[in-house]
Design brief:
Strand order of the largest sheet of chain A: 3-2-4-7-1-8-12-11-9-10
Structural class of chain B: mainly beta
Oligomer: heterotrimer
Largest interface: A-B, 31 and 29 residues
Chains: A alpha/beta, B mainly beta, C alpha/beta
Shape of chain A: globular
CATH class of chain B: Mainly Beta
CATH class of chain A: Alpha Beta
CATH architecture of chain A: 3-Layer(aba) Sandwich
CATH architecture of chain B: Beta Barrel
Number of strands of chain B: 5
Strand content of chain B: 35-45%
Strand order of the largest sheet of chain B: 1-2-3-5-4
Number of domains of chain A: 1
Structural class of chain A: alpha/beta
Largest sheet of chain A: 10 strands, mixed
Number of strands of chain A: 12
Chain lengths: 387, 99, 340
Amino acid sequence: MTHHPAIIGYYTTRFGELWDKSLFQLVREAVDGVMASCRTETESMDAIFFSNMMGGILENNLHAGAKLAEVLGVNLPIFRTEAACASGGMAVHLATQYVTARPGTTVLVVGAEKMTDYAPEETASALMSAASGEEQSAGLTFPGLYAMLANVYLETYGYARDCLAPVPHKNHFHGSLNEQAHFRKQISIREILASPPVASPLTLLDCSPISDGASAIIVSSNKSFIKKSAHAISILATEVATDTISLKGRGRLDELAATRIASEKAFGASGIKPRDINVAELHDCFSIAELLAMEDIGFWKKGTAGQRAKELSTMLGSGGTLTVNTSGGLKAAGHPVGATGIKQIGELFLQLTGQAGKRQVKKAAYGLAHNVGGSGGTAVVTILGQR
Amino acid sequence: MLSPVKLWRRQKEIRSILGKKGKVVTATTVFVPTPEFKKYAPYTVVLVDFGHGIKAFGQLADTHDDCRTGTRVVAVLRKTKEVMQEDVIAYGIKFRIIP
Amino acid sequence: MTGIISYGYYVPRYRIRIAEIARMWGKRASDIEDSLGVVEKTVSGVDEDSLTMAYEASSYALFGQDEARKSIRSVFFGSESPPYAVNPSSTILAEFLGLGTDYLASDMQFACKAGTGALIATAGLIESGFETHGLVVASDKATGRPHDALEYTASSGAVSLLVGAKDVAVEILEKTSYSSDTPDFWRREGIRYPSHGGRFTGKPSYFRHVGGAVRDILQKTKMKPEDFTYAVFHMPNGKFPLVAAASLGFTRKQVEPSLVVPYLGNSYTASGLMGLVSVLEHAKKNDTILFASYGSGAGSDAFVLRATGLLDERRQPFAEHVAQKEYIDYATYLKFMHII
């Protein structure tokens, strides 16, 4: 535990349709939970990073810093981050920069989203703010954008849509082991292929759900605080890359260049290689996204994911060297947008500190979190491990 | 309320694409639309390449069948979304398949 | 000689059979088809309106007329189903056609004769030297009240005319207009469906005004019905134009080539002009055409037209094109017409 900032605590609310709690009540729960797990208080933080995408659009609530100051009863510096679905990863990235720039500091990173107070189509419309105006005007939805990527991938590499189904199938198996997951039920390949079409070729069960939830971690560069903590995992790298917001402007449609660039930078900065990673939380907003991620990050060769996914080698218990999305991914754990990126890192924290219970990957040493905004306009790749 | 100013600014772009012919790069048929497109669903959205670096998104006119890559289309003028009774009408580009 | 330099039209691909509408209301299809002389009508799609159709028709009219279009100094949009109650569609159309800013724009409404009234006005602008070229578009997405007689015939279509002083394919030899205050068909502001006077729409309305205008123009030109190759009358249904023709001394043979209403329905301002488009597919140099529109409220514009040798280059294929169609059911029809 030398010069890297460390994560010393994690708490997540359940993800799902949480009718009884408002956005900031969920935030409160996550913050109280993580503070209790580290036996510390919000007041002793040096800053707070808050990740949320749609508070402005859906609830007409911005100025989150002041809102949080009121809810948590503090006068701390509070920073809100937004990068669509990569808001959480972005918050952890910025928190890491903060504690690195100010050695000896400790910050709270909390992400939350409240998506079920509105009709699903209003929420879907709000989510489209992460796409270009032209994509919105053409009637595209997020399933539609990823469906286009899926069609390019399937056509380019000669696969049928059945190569997508293993992803939600695997992630639901993992979700069944996660008490905080939105969906605890397993689903079969056949059910996935037969579920109602949403945007061809994607069906309902190819798509992550609309969920409420909040997750929080504590990040520190305070060496003595880290030493006293029951659990601590180093942030070995956190890198961000962007790309055109619109699919129209991308160089290639069979990859997310932002993922590729951010991962290359993260592996370079940490000295870790793809084969060293034991556990990964990848951004499976739609089934195709996890296939692309496996290739873009360099776990699998370009064009092979369609075949390899069917082997289910990244599923718990398969004996593979890399296990992906033990939390259940976005698909089964749920996808409260602002919380996801933090949940991903929190899940890795649990894995790397041996606290993952039924989902534990044995001897997990290095973990990678991959958080994407929109159809690939932002990617944040974070590598964690003991150092 | 739909911004009439935004629509007005987009007119020039629409005009520059009207009547142009291009090829479909990729497509998807949307079955679950956002509210303004409910009346038109299901519909097929395509990304069209006109060459010279010009591309555009739009719905197919008059059909929602799946559309293969490489299909030739021409840009036509249609109403592109449902607006409120008091709003300015949103005219834009859709694509008709060239037989 | 002022006339039509080039023209374009738009007929949507969708059709609904009269039998399908009759089925809805428990009527016998053959009864309706026989009494109205209509078998099916056009329906424009859910994302189409009179403006989008006007644009399509105008694109064809201006195709290959790159020099002429730069000289267009007037744009008239005639419709009784304009997209806005207040806002010119003529300028929206001109903007999408890229006609610049140096033109007079005017939206006209006069039931089914807004387009032909605009044609007279445009011819006047040209003859007075105001301009050398003008665009006249007639376009309607006509709606009938469900279960009303008009539901069987009100259809969609657009015709666009590039009018000019020279280089014309169809000369306008004479024009006249017959008008009066006759309340046979109307729609109040804010009210969705038009109302009409039933049988009052016949003798005191359609026949009086069409007859009046045609007799006036025959007198003006000292021409007789047999002098004409073709006769085109506004087509509210398949019967009226034949009755008008007969009563004015025209033969069925002269009228038949223009009779599109049985398979296209009545596209209101575009109706008579669509019949003209049908005739122009076959008209030869020096063929003369008597054309009379009718607009409820009421009035009729009559024209004596003559085809020139240039029609051969400007002719638009029609019969084969409108034969390409797709049938829809009643529920889809209601959706396309924004009734549901």
